[in-house]
Design brief:
Helices cover 79% and strands 0% of the residues. The chain is an all-alpha fold. The N terminus and C terminus are likely disordered. The chain contains 17 helices and no strands.
């Protein structure tokens, strides 16, 4: 592959990079804080049982993901038109307002209104990704995308633990803490964050191309982009499979306690951060971004095959680090995509990435736990609780095949400049 270089990429100041990483980390920290709190708040607002609260909780997650799917490319296109800085700051402010709305919500519908607001402005990581693309040379993008993903993962590790501590002092307190984190970040960004997209690189807004399908169609004019979008969707879905099914799988298959599940998921989160910071940097420097994406998916396949087919708990635990190698593929794929798209469409690209993540966030909890349930109910040869991981391994292999297909096609034709 011949990624587009950016000799005129704007130099990144340390404060800008720190702010982007802090923004993404605090964004996920705020979301993570609410994980152990939302069920209790739903119980308080509805007065119904836990099983019904779980249904409402699922609809809240689906509402956020669906709105984010629609809004991601719109925000991305707006950032291509007016710049990254105002979109980042407004999005963070809207997040803070949505947390306050949840904290004062008198009834359940108010939580859904807040989730719609969060989904509308939930493209903070996408806009941050466009900012990184603006200020980074092609050779630096994979490492910086990996650091951004790791910052997001770190927030998701710390957030639930912090939320569990805060909720002991009141069900509503975690929402206001999350709001303060977002609003303080807005103030910090207003002071230290410069604009990364100069006026001469901005693009006129087109609402026809701002919706997800229009944006995908525009970007897919560049050869290979459509296939890489499919690979990214597969990678996002497969990586979401383990957290969506792991508690049910390990409790039934090995009789693990809730504490055992919690420790193993904490290890999963820690390994994902390490793979996206240290391992990604090391592998990418030695074999290149495209091969890094393929290797990450291959190691993910190996880990998931072990989870699906091995019945010894300690060996299964050893498969977790292999499975987390799939996180390397995410930043690598985004970097490959970014290198093929013109600088005035980076926001649109990152919006599509956010939309694909939203699709995976909706599909995975609907499909994979159901697959576990079906194959856990059979006896004999059809008894296969690890079926979600077997399907995930197959999806990762399809991703590898699609990458190889793009590589073969590009080796036979001259390099093509990104869409302009």
């Amino acid at each position: 592959m011949n990624p587009r270089t950016d000799p005129d990429a704007r130099a990144a100041s340390p404060r800008s990079l720190v702010f982007i990483l802090l923004t993404v980390g605090l964004d996920s920290l705020g979301l993570g804080i609410l994980v152990p709190v939302i069920p209790r708040l739903i119980l308080d607002l509805t007065g119904q049982g836990l099983t019904r609260a779980a249904v409402y909780g699922g609809w809240l997650v689906a509402t956020f993901a669906a709105v984010q799917f629609l809004a991601g490319p719109i925000l991305g296109s707006i950032s291509d038109r007016i710049g990254r800085r105002p979109v980042l700051l407004v999005s963070l402010a809207a997040f803070g307002c949505s947390y306050i709305l949840m904290g004062v919500a008198p009834t359940l519908p108010w939580l859904f209104v807040a989730q719609v607001l969060t989904g509308l402005f939930g493209a903070t990581p996408a806009t941050a990704g466009a900012y990184i693309a603006d200020i980074s040379a092609t050779t630096e993008r994979t490492r910086r995308f990996g650091a951004t993903a790791a910052a997001y993962g770190t927030g998701l590790i710390i957030g639930p633990a912090l939320g569990g501590i805060l909720v002991a002092h009141g069900t509503r307190l975690p929402f206001f803490v999350a709001a303060c984190l977002s609003l303080l970040t807005v103030i910090y960004g207003f002071v230290v964050l410069p604009e990364s997209l100069p006026p001469e690189k901005r693009r006129r807004m087109s609402w026809q191309r701002a919706h997800p399908f229009g944006a995908m169609q525009l970007l897919s004019r560049t050869p290979g982009i459509a296939s890489l979008f499919v690979v990214l969707l597969l990678q996002r879905t497969v990586m979401s499979t383990l957290p969506a099914t792991w508690p049910y799988f390990t409790m039934q298959q090995y009789g693990w306690s809730a504490r055992d599940v919690g420790y193993s998921l904490a290890g999963f989160g820690l390994a994902s951060v390490l793979s996206q910071v240290w391992l990604l940097r090391w592998v990418d420097a030695r074999i290149g971004t495209v091969l890094t994406a393929s290797v990450g998916l291959m190691l993910l396949t190996s880990g998931y095959l072990g989870l699906a087919l091995i019945n010894t708990s300690w060996i299964t635990a050893l498969c977790i680090p292999l499975a987390t190698m799939g996180f390397m593929a995410g930043p690598a794929l985004v970097s490959v995509l970014s290198g093929r798209i013109a600088s005035d469409l980076q926001g649109t690209l990152q919006g599509v990435v956010a939309s694909l993540s939203g699709v995976a966030a909706v599909l995975t909890p609907l499909v994979m736990p159901r697959l576990f349930s079906v194959f856990s109910g059979y006896s004999g040869a059809m008894h296969l609780p690890g079926a979600p991981y077997l399907l995930g391994a197959a999806m990762a292999l399809v991703g590898v095949a699609l990458i190889r297909r793009v590589v073969r096609r590009e080796s036979r034709i001259p390099a093509v400049e990104g869409v302009s």
